[in-house]
Amino acid sequence: MSDILFVTWDGGGNVPPATAIARELVARGHTVRFLGHAAQVAALEEEGVEVVRGRHARAYSRFDRYSPLTMMAVFGDRGMGRDLLEETSVRRYDLVVIDCLMVGALAAAREAGLRYAVLEHLYDAYFRRTILGGPMGLNLRLRRLAPQRSLEDAAVRLVTSLPELDPVPDPPANLRQVGPVVPLSAPATQGGDPTVLVSLSTFGYPGMTAALQRLVDATRDLDARVVVTTGPAVDPADIRAPRGTEVHRFVPHAELMPGLSLFVGHGGHGSTMTALGHDLPLVLMPMDGLADQPGVADSVERAGAGRRVAKKASPADLAPVLAAMLADGPHRAAAARLGAAVRAQPGAILGADALEVALDGSVTPGGRPPR
């Protein structure tokens, strides 16, 4: 069996795909460790994974004040790369799996000749066009981090998106679109009282409390049970909720999804794919125009499974959209079709398969040894 190191960062939705694939690898007998930001050590240890504590990565937490300049510094941080090289100098790893946004660590692995894989936990189209093809990519290239070359030299690139929503024409030889890596229980059940879940990002985006309040206000006249989760970035006490509306800091989405009728989110890749995997239509309010959220929301709307709304939309504008998506209609069939596609691609299993092939080519799909 192999020793594998995952390099991640404290971004919120980027972590669950990595830990899910890691758990699948551990179940197959591999040893897995994680290297990330100090702020996420406790959460990673709660996931049951062994964590390597680095010394050089810049201090960062997703609850810090957000700015594009901060994110450029985090993504291009060579300190994370130094931590990676220090760890691989004292412990032998057969493969390093690096978050696609940790470009400083990718450059370090490539320059050192390590065998590494890239985990793309978002739409490949967004990653290539908006990040690498935009100001962020220019900044990374000017810093001589050569992000495109790091992708080309990877043993494998795991893209955890749904091909129908994120088509990859003419994929490079090392790219594997394994499907969303999301927690799934069962598709949403029909019957019973309609239930709506309103939940925005765990990331501390500016203006998120006000946006969440406008969404809650827009649910006031819905004929449905309304559950709101604020996440760690918003204090539940700051939300004025109508009588009967439940407001929680955190409730596991996978526990709520089977009984939901509608999911209202921010267009994050993970929460959106989880909702679709439960056949749920969506109303999506992107919190950051530079992130992948607008693209995810637009793709869901084009597929007929939901609606994108503006971050500053008023409750009066939001209310009819919520009512329409809560009602029956073709959007439910579209969501169910996408849900079937999500469930047909078990991303954690297929991702682990691809990593094992990158290690030594000794397994067949599903993690089974060859006969």
Description:
It comes from Nocardioides taihuensis. Pfam families: EryCIII-like_C (PF06722), Glyco_trans_4_4 (PF13579). Residues 214-346 form the Erythromycin biosynthesis protein CIII-like C-terminal domain. InterPro entries: EryCIII-like_C, Glyco_trans_4-like_N, Glycosyltransferase_28, UDP_glucos_trans. By secondary structure, the protein is of the alpha/beta class. The protein has two domains: 3-179 and 345-359, Glycogen Phosphorylase B (Rossmann fold, 3-Layer(aba) Sandwich); 195-343, 3-Layer(aba) Sandwich (Rossmann fold), CATH 3.40.50. 40% of the residues lie in helices and 14% in strands. The strands form two sheets. A seven-stranded parallel beta sheet has the order 3-2-1-4-5-6-7, sandwiched between helices. A six-stranded parallel beta sheet has the order 10-9-8-11-12-13, sandwiched between helices. Helix 4 crosses helix 5, helix 9 packs across helix 13 and helix 11 packs across helix 14. The radius of gyration is 20 Å and the shape is globular.
What portion of the residues fall into strands of 2 or more residues? Answer: 5-15%
Shape, per Cα inertia axes: globular
Distance between the termini: 18 Å
Average residue pLDDT: 92
- CATH homologous superfamily title of the largest domain: Glycogen Phosphorylase B
Low-confidence stretches: 362-371
What is the β-strand count? 13
**Biggest pleated sheet:** 7 strands, parallel
Please count the helical segments: 15
Domain tally: 2
H/E series, N to C?
Answer: EHEHEHHEHEHHHEEEHEEHEHEHEHHH
CATH topology of the largest domain: Rossmann fold
Q: Which sequence of strands runs across the widest sheet?
A: 3-2-1-4-5-6-7
The assigned structural class equals: alpha/beta
Radius of gyration: 20 Å
The share of residues in helices is 25-40%
CATH class (first level) name of the largest domain: Alpha Beta
Overall CATH architecture of the largest domain: 3-Layer(aba) Sandwich
